[in-house]
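Appendix B. Raw example, untouched.
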Amino acid sequence: MCTRFIATVAKVHGYNYLRQILDPLVQQMLQLPPETSFELDPKKATMAQIETNVETIRYLAQAFLDVITNSVQFLPM
């Protein structure tokens, strides 16, 4: 019973926390040009496209990590 309560509280507060910190970044991603690609499969993209896509993915992954690590003060306790 206690575990279920803790899981429910964590889900509710964790959801709000993640929405608060990640929503602006997700909104920025939605504003990327339609031709932005994340394809890494060499059967579906050229090596030049893959190199560009790797850089895009690295940039976005770092942005997510930065947002999360800089939001410790908002972490639900």
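End of appendix B.
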